[in-house]
Amino acid sequence: MVNHTNLQKKFKTLRDAYTAQLPENIKQIRQAWGRLPLGEWDDVGFQILYLMVHNLAISGRTFGYYLLSDVARKLEGCLMPLTQAKTVLTEEQREHICDLMNELDQIPAVRRPLADAMSGAIIPLPTSETQVQRPTANY
Length: 139
Description:
The structure is a single chain. By secondary structure, the protein is mostly helical. It has a single domain (4-115), classed as Four Helix Bundle (Hemerythrin (Met), subunit A), CATH 1.20.120.160. It contains five helices and no strands. Helix 1 packs antiparallel against helix 2 (43-62) and helix 2 (43-62) runs antiparallel to helix 3 (66-85). The N and C termini lie far apart (40 Å).
């Protein structure tokens, strides 16, 4: 039989570690974005940025940071076609990405993990309605 109290404690420990790393993870995403050259395509740099944002989108929802996950998913959705096109970004595209980055920067201050709201209740596994949907484009 599964010990739910033990599982809750383990999940809380993982969530606390994730929460502590969150500002640094967002900072690293911003730094990856800042390292991309303005007038040329950097395939490796863009792939790194995309994967970091993708991981944030998935992990945010796992730990109850739904707003974080939603903003990261919007950013991921913006980056995916650019990653596939492999062309220099327009000023409009760069501005849109910067706007989403700024949105990400604001989220840690307003984060609200799922488990905090549940105050001791068993944390449910995500349902198919709350899971992050995999992008439909081919990788």
